[in-house]
Write a structure and sequence with these properties.
Length: 207
């Protein structure tokens, strides 16, 4: 459920909230604490595959985390999303960053994954409305990330089997199949969408 506040939460008030129960964590959106459900098996396998591929390509150049909250600004207000994967280069890492807390600077890259199965049956209808985003909503969220000084946003659509890369100064580009995903921002980082699914051991006919 949404943690309703009589007054809209400040960033510090949000950070001081008690942890959610079970597999629920919270994002700060428009002054409210909004639940985000921990990913299930299919989603988790894709997350792990992407993490492994990024770490293999960029070893020693970055910190990569799944499900790490990041303190940003959205439309002039405090915003604390929890991207599926967060990548921050060593040169952007603040020297005093507490790695047990919220990421305090905009990362180089965030990755969001759209599951083909929608909400798991174990989730309530109320939670479902706040826990998932449609492709169109994810595109809007990608723009919010870019406006908050994130350098790149990747949206993996597992039903379409594609990764769309959003840039701050160019039109989005979508990669599928054996197209090699590369970016001058991330030296040495290159792989295909098919490699992600193969590494996740998800067959072509899944979803």
């Amino acid at each position: 459920m949404i943690l309703q506040a009589k007054n809209q939460l400040t960033l510090q008030e949000f950070l001081n909230l008690p942890p959610g129960e079970g597999d629920i964590t919270y994002e700060l959106v428009d002054g409210q604490a909004i639940p985000k459900i921990s990913p299930k098996k299919f989603h988790s396998k894709l997350t792990r595959a992407l993490l492994n591929l990024i770490e293999q390509c960029c070893e020693g150049k970055e910190e990569v985390y799944p499900e790490l909250a990041v303190a940003l600004t959205r439309r002039g207000r405090d915003w604390v999303p929890i991207p599926d994967i967060l990548y921050i280069s060593n040169k952007r890492l603040p020297p005093d960053w507490d790695q047990e807390g919220v990421c305090s600077v905009p990362p180089d890259l965030v990755i969001e994954i759209i599951s083909p199965f929608g909400i798991e049956s174990s989730q309530s209808a109320e939670t479902a409305k706040t826990a998932t985003l449609s492709p169109g909503q994810m595109t809007a969220k990608a723009k919010d990330y870019l406006d908050a000084k994130v350098l790149r946003v990747w949206v993996l659509d597992s039903k379409a089997r594609s990764i769309t890369v959003f840039y701050p100064d160019a039109a989005p580009q979508t990669y599928m199949g054996e197209e090699l995903l590369t970016d001058s921002l991330f030296e040495g980082l290159e792989f295909t969408v098919d490699q992600v699914f193969q590494k996740a051991k998800i067959p072509l006919d899944a979803g």
